[in-house]
## 1
Amino acid sequence: MPHHATEPLRQFNMNAIRKKVAFHTLGCKLNFAETSTISRSFPEDKFERVSPASKADIYVINTCSVTDAADRKCRQAIKKFITMSPGAFIAVVGCYAQLKPQEISSIPGVDLVLGTNEKFDIAAYIDDQGKRSETEIHSVGLSSSDTFNTSYSLGDRTRSFLKVQDGCDYGCSYCTIPRARGNSRNPLITEVIREAYKISERGIKEVVLTGVNIGDFGRSTGESFSNLIGELIRVQGIERYRISSIEPNLLTDEIIGMAARNEKILPHFHIPLQSGCNKILGLMRRRYTRELFRDRVNLIRKVMPYAGIGADVIAGFPGESQADFEDTFSFIQGLPLSYLHVFTFSERPDTLAEKLPGKVSPAEKAERSRLLIKLSESKSADFNNLNKGQTTMVLFEKSRSEGLITGFSSNYIRVEYPWNPKLAGQVIKVKLNSVSSSGRMTVEII
Ligand code: SF4
């Protein structure tokens, strides 16, 4: 039976050997930025950071709850660590912890569940007492959540995910993220710039701007996303910025123009479409029509002919007839997109979509997803062909795979080159050649 502890601050035996702590992240780039920041709040004189693949005294699991499958993966991860180290202290944070703390605390072996506001103070909840007889839950309702915890990822990736915005005020009918993360809010531009300099000091060349609804940056400070990127490109040492994802109705001409004029803003746009049928966009309570989406894509293509343009699409939304699906399919077929992220509709509890009529059968949903994934493959093959012979800048990863070094081009094409450690973490000018059996493009350095 879980209980609500009041005083988080606990005593620590200073002479004890350092505790081994491991962090495991599920979900989005924002979660990776936050886990990395949370891990830095564990003082090194008391805690030794170890890989989650190894035995640890403490496991911190940062969760995601965007779909049923995400919840299931979180439960599996929690149980895996409990089995791996039965005596370890298990702390669960993140969106799933905020939305369903009771569900998590019913898993035998979970010691601590922290909500969205509390997760950044986790080190204060951990002490020498070790495992709890009952799960401690600290998660408050988020209605008034206006705290913004800055975050950025470091060390385990070639690029850094920089959190610039949190929460969302949009009410899309299928989404629980606003309940998990609260209202749309952001720090002042000056605070983000301070974080960017901390990343630059670590020699990281690429920053991925992340959040929940980043185009809404400025809502809580009276600033704007274009103001923000206008300041970020002046930060010395960071060579390029990637916009992780931006709502079509918030992707202004100004932002597209800034990317076309400034090499530091990468020509890669990931834009959630969700459906290519206006009737379904209405049922989803999305804030644009397919015409607006098409207009954004065409403007990008006009001013940046080789830009990478990706889109999210949901298959099998309630009310989506076969004709609606074919409408979406032909709409996407007609657009110069580079790839799709396809999501099979997953009903979330207490959402408007949960109550909508016209549920699509699991078999039909699976078939529509299969067709969209095939369409995405042909889109990315066309995009690779379009880029053959083009020159671009590649950030090479730090890891070696099958004797090769890989990386992403400015416009988000995955490339490969014979392993050369000198290239790791560097932004290098290359010519894109052909597609290899791995599906990546081979390059020559110029
Ligand atoms: S924009 Fe819509 S789908 Fe995206 S987080 Fe907000 S409510 Fe959810």
Note: The CA atoms of residues 217 and 223 lie 7 Å apart.
## 2
Amino acid sequence: MEGYLGSAYLWVKALHIIFVIFWMAGLFMMPRFFAYHTNYAPNSDEDDRWIERETRLKKIIMNPAMMLAWILGLMLVVHIGMGAGGWLHTKLALVVALTGFHIFLSRQAKAFAARARPKSEKFYRLINELPAVFIIIIAILAVVKPF
Ligand code: HEM
């Protein structure tokens, strides 16, 4: 199947990067929303507004963007082959971890929607930086392909 994309290869890669950017935007925004949300009492008007914002971010941006980044990424894996190099295996391991972070945030949003306050404002401000670390390593692996 290697090379099956033919002239569509670069279009698929461009779309892959576009949805990766939308996905990363969501992974940066959601912990920030939680940090602000923790300051409002459950069942207050502001609590309702933050639940609405988090639900829309998850359903309209984060989930569709993650799924499209994965589908287009796997189409690229089949095109270049799993033997493309250690960079690809390491990248995929990091992307699986990033997907785990996505699922964690999704569960936190569910907890907030149930009027809970699962973690502290400080905790959310701390994890807000995590996607940046992943992006730096993944982008270098994907573009430089160092091993
Ligand atoms: C979601 C699962 C993902 C899969 C299966 C995947 C897989 C791939 C594959 C196979 C390529 C093609 C490499 C090539 O043609 O040389 C690629 C390109 C790329 N990916 Fe991903 N990727 C995923 C997620 C991500 C994430 C999360 C990022 C960034 C944070 C990312 C950034 C990139 C970049 C920048 C390129 C272009 C590399 C280049 O053309 O030099 N990918 N991806």
Note: Residues 13, 16-17, 20, 24, 69-70, 73-74, 76-77, 80, 92, 95, 98, 135, 138-139, 142-143 surround protoporphyrin IX containing FE (CB under 6 Å).
